[in-house]
Amino acid sequence: MKALLLISGGFDSAVAGYLMQQKGVEVIAMHFSYAPFTDDAPEKKSRKSTEILGIKKFIVRNISNEIQEISKKCKHKYYFILTKRLMLKLAEKEALKEKCDFLITGENLSQVSSQTLQNLHAITKAVKMPIVRPLLTYDKIEILNIAKKIGTYDACIGPEVCDVLGPKHPATTSKLEEIENEENLLNQ
Amino acid sequence: MIIKRCSTKGAFEAVPEKPVKLDLNKLKSKFETIADLPILIIIKHNGYEITCFKNGKLLIKNCDSESIAEKLANEIMENLK
Q1: Which end of chain B has the least Cβ crowding within 10 Å, N or C?
Q2: By residue range, what is the domain housing residue A89?
Q3: To the nearest whole angstrom, how far is the Cα of A160 from the nearest Cα of chain B?
Q4: CA–CA separation, A71 vs A82, rounded Å?
Q5: What is the domain-level CATH number for residue A153?
Q6: Which fold has domain B2-78?
Q7: Which ipTM score applies to this complex?
Q8: Do B38 and A165 touch (CB under 8 A)?
């Protein structure tokens, strides 16, 4: 089995990739850069993590134009859900080209606003390809302990500029129909 | 301006001591602009990328020196006079 890991440069996605490798899955990785809305630290952290995990293919896609459009045209509270759906759609295209069977994310239930059960449902429906979320019910401390054990903790720690477009009060609940209506405002 | 590290420590932020509304159009006319949104613009100044928020906050990326961050922030504010 082969899968495409969406890697952010944070602790979780690298650990998610590792856990799937442990199950015998061949993992390739894709990072979505928000520069210039962030700095290049997440990309560097992602690259380093893939090296540590022995992931041979690392793809970087800048989505600054797309997130600008989301920010200009859509309800701000849905920003994180819409950007996650965008990344999954782009990842799915790449995964099909690379003959992958599924996508992997480091999402973790209720860790952040886009990861409530309702929002995860709306995010999941962006693509047809299966999404495996090996960390869904993990505790953050468990995740950090694995990161330390496998050596990605040091690669992922350190300062970075957070996404300046993110809303102060993101939606914690969403209806798929409403999210799709917002997406219809976009030329993506 | 109050200069401090931003919450994720990846940049310096400069916050005006008194509430201020930045004239983003005026800044756009004076600096190279690399991103342009209603609530913020990102400009280039002296090789640094600086996010200028409408509410007066400036975010200075890839800068390790508080004194340079302060100098850049003051220069930007000077251009609004």
Answers
A1: C
A2: 2-186
A3: 4
A4: 10
A5: 3.40.50.620
A6: TATA-Binding Protein (3.30.310)
A7: 0.80
A8: no
Mutate to test the interface with B, among A62, A67, A76, A161 (most CBs of B within 10 A): A161
A160 chain-B contacts, CB cut-off 8 A: 8, 10
Q: Buried b vs exposed e over A116-128: b needs ≥16 C-beta within 10 Å?
A: beebbebbbebbe
pLDDT digits (tens, 9 = 90+) for A60-76: 999 999 999 999 999 99
Q: How many domains does chain A have?
A: 1
CA angle, residues A168, B57, A163, in degrees to nearest 5: 45
Residue of B nearest to A166 (CA): B39
In tens, the pLDDT along A119-178 reads: 999 999 999 999 999 999 999 999 999 999 999 999 999 877 777 888 889 999 999 999
Answer whether A36 sits within 8 Å of B49, measured CB to CB. yes
DSSP string, A35-48: TTSS-SHHHHHHHH
Cβ within 8 Å, pair B59-A161: yes
Q: What is the mean pLDDT of each run of 10 residues along chain B (81 residues)?
A: 84 88 93 92 94 93 91 90 76
Helical pair A117-124 and A176-183, crossing angle rounded to 10 deg: 50
Calculate how close chain A gets to B63, using CA atoms only, in Å.
11
